[in-house]
């Protein structure tokens, strides 16, 4: 089953890291990435630019485009991983490894349902029968 592991942090802290601090965190995460890649568990991942680079489209009678994130919050979504884990417990184990490498971040684990296929890789969308039922409890 695919899980998204969303990484949250105070972007005012993260985007003010020195190059050395950033390199150290990315180096520790790289060790986890290599392990997950060798196990065939790491899917796509992304590091998002700060929310100051974001634009939000709010739906409504007249859709509105605004600068910045949808919500004001101290912690922002800074990036995400897609991992292939057997169950929630295994996905939480992966999140724990990421957290050990980057302890200042918060990691949210959420099951993923592929909505559209990835035409670049040939990964098919899941059929309705493969949809995730009730979330697993922790």
TrEMBL record:
Domain YCII-related: 1-112
Pfam families attached to this UniProt entry: YCII
Database matches in SUPFAM superfamilies: Dimeric alpha+beta barrel (SSF54909)
Secretion signal, residue range per the UniProt entry: none
Family membership: Belongs to the YciI family.
Family matches, as PANTHER family: BLL7171 PROTEIN, BLL7171 PROTEIN-RELATED
Name assigned to this protein: YciI family protein
